[in-house]
TrEMBL record:
<protein>
    <submittedName>
        <fullName>SgcJ/EcaC family oxidoreductase</fullName>
    </submittedName>
</protein>
<dbReference type="InterPro" id="IPR013543">
    <property type="entry name" value="Ca/CaM-dep_prot_kinase-assoc"/>
</dbReference>
<dbReference type="InterPro" id="IPR011944">
    <property type="entry name" value="Steroid_delta5-4_isomerase"/>
</dbReference>
<keyword id="KW-0732">Signal</keyword>
<feature type="domain" description="Calcium/calmodulin-dependent protein kinase II association-domain">
    <location>
        <begin position="38"/>
        <end position="159"/>
    </location>
</feature>
<dbReference type="Pfam" id="PF08332">
    <property type="entry name" value="CaMKII_AD"/>
</dbReference>
<dbReference type="InterPro" id="IPR016887">
    <property type="entry name" value="UCP028470_steroid_isom-rel"/>
</dbReference>
<dbReference type="InterPro" id="IPR032710">
    <property type="entry name" value="NTF2-like_dom_sf"/>
</dbReference>
<feature type="signal peptide">
    <location>
        <begin position="1"/>
        <end position="18"/>
    </location>
</feature>
Length: 165
């Protein structure tokens, strides 16, 4: 019984500490990757971000593999077909998003696959006013017919907000 009370008190203390700790935020742009392979993968986000800037959902959607999956930030619906991915970007692009990588980890999984995971911030226009959307992300890439494609893209808003957000 004493051990259960001890464990319960540890859990309560950790909950209080977690509730009072300042959330981790990422504001700066991530440093450039060190290796050529990592720079190649980092450039894929730049390509994706440039496709967003065109304002054309079809330009963004063509960066995804035909069987690619998008788990988006600002929609609960998981998109698993090119048509669904295009539909998501039809709506997301209305926010005029521009992304900045704030923190990243790139892993090369061989010559034809890699992932890029971290935190990014989107500058958007919401209700006519500039706003920021901070999120965590993971892109999984696969080289298909010599071209890197997104096979999975997961993005989720940061669950904790700093007081200056």
């Amino acid at each position: 019984m004493k051990s259960l009370l001890f464990i319960a008190s540890l859990l309560a203390a950790s909950t209080v500490c977690a509730a009072t700790a300042s959330p981790v935020t990422y504001h700066e742009a991530a440093p450039a990757p060190a290796t050529a392979g990592e720079r190649e993968i980092a450039a894929l986000f730049d390509r994706w971000n440039a496709a967003l800037a065109t304002g054309h959902s079809s330009e963004v959607a063509k960066l995804y593999a035909p069987d690619g999956v998008l788990q988006p930030t600002v929609s609960n619906k998981i998109r698993a077909t090119p048509e669904e991915i295009t539909d998501y970007f039809d709506h997301f692009l209305a926010l005029k998003p521009h992304g900045t990588i704030n923190y990243r980890q790139i892993r090369l999984l061989g010559d034809n696959s890699a992932f890029d995971s971290g935190a990014y911030t989107f500058d958007v226009v919401k209700n006519g006013k500039p706003a920021k959307v901070r999120a965590r992300y993971t892109y999984i890439y696969k080289k298909i017919d010599g071209d890197w494609k997104i096979v999975n893209h997961h993005s989720s808003a940061m669950p904790e907000f700093a007081k200056d957000e």
